[in-house]
Design goal:
Length: 308
């Protein structure tokens, strides 16, 4: 049975002003915040909702639309959902803001860019309700801990299987609500034990963390990695989505902002192989030891708060 997480908060007339000082990696927070490279592919998209959206004078709806015919086709009422894709050029990490009705979620925030994320939410009049991590990252420290200092009503979220601390620990099948929308948790372990993919209610978008990258996937040689488990979970929980579902990864190192399930099923250099071939590929990548892992993993196990 799906568990719907929907904490109620009073709607504020304004969000708190910034008081947190950003810690920069060799450049000022202002420079990073306003650099075009740090804010990639910013846009608002009209997306369909898999559940009814009540009409009111303040809500915008359009006529029902139907996704192209597949076994997972969805017919639904559409509503205007705000979406932003933000970028950290140091770790090549994408952070995602989704909002509806003034309530929002933030996926995979980065510690050094907390001020940017809060500023974007303030400017768009979004109250951040949940701060989500797709997994316990090894290449950067999550921004959830510092965000909670500025936005005390926001709740941190991570998979229970990760073993990390957070306000809300989620399991496969749980749903996280914001406004009239929600994302569903799909467990996709293999890169780490606690990896999850967040799937938007109408299956138009999925946020895969490191489980599926554009034409690749996360490594499996550390942090409880298991290549066979990753292959199985991706094919069961991601590649079973409609081919037109957009794939938004946690990272990209070649400037690619998104893919689709159909593209990855056809062109992914690793996950299109047989299971045995995939396991062999992952065992022979010969990648260097992650430079941030000894700092990032311990911090991310405690919500990114390094001094506790």
């Amino acid at each position: 049975m799906q568990r719907l997480l929907h904490l109620r908060h009073p709607t504020p007339s304004s969000l708190p002003r910034l008081s947190l000082r950003s810690r920069s990696r060799g450049s000022s927070a202002a420079t990073r915040r306003h650099s075009p490279a740090c804010q990639a592919h910013l846009h608002i998209r009209r997306l369909t909702s898999s559940h009814a959206v009540s009409s009111s004078s303040s809500s915008k709806t359009t006529s029902s639309t139907t996704h192209s015919a597949t076994s997972n086709s969805v017919t639904a009422t559409s509503s205007l959902m705000l979406f932003r894709q933000l970028f950290d050029r140091e770790s090549c990490t994408y952070t995602y803001l989704l909002a509806d009705g003034g309530e929002g979620i933030l996926i995979d925030p980065v510690k050094e860019l907390v001020e940017r994320d809060v500023e974007v939410a303030q400017q768009l009049n979004v109250k951040l309700k949940y701060l989500l991590n797709t997994h316990c990252h090894a290449d950067h420290v999550t921004g959830t801990g510092d965000l909670k200092k500025v936005l005390p009503d926001a709740k941190s979220v991570i998979s229970k299987a990760s073993g990390a601390k957070a306000d809300v620990l989620v399991n496969d099948g749980d749903a996280i609500a914001f406004g009239s929308r929600h994302v569903t948790v799909h467990a996709t372990p293999g890169h780490t034990d606690g990896c999850v993919t967040f799937v938007l209610d109408d299956k138009s978008m999925c946020f895969t963390g490191d489980a599926v990258l554009v034409r690749g996937c996360g490594r499996t040689d550390f942090q409880q990695g298991d290549a066979g488990k990753l292959f199985d979970s991706v094919h069961e929980k991601v590649f079973s989505l409609p081919d037109e579902t957009f794939v938004y990864p946690a990272h990209d190192y070649k400037g690619r902002t998104r893919s689709t399930v159909g593209e990855e099923k056809k062109y992914n250099l690793r996950l299109t192989k047989s299971r045995d071939e995939f396991i062999d590929i992952m065992a022979n990548l010969g990648l260097p030891y992650p430079k941030m892992i000894d700092v990032a993993v311990p911090a991310n196990l405690v919500c990114g708060i390094q001094d506790e």
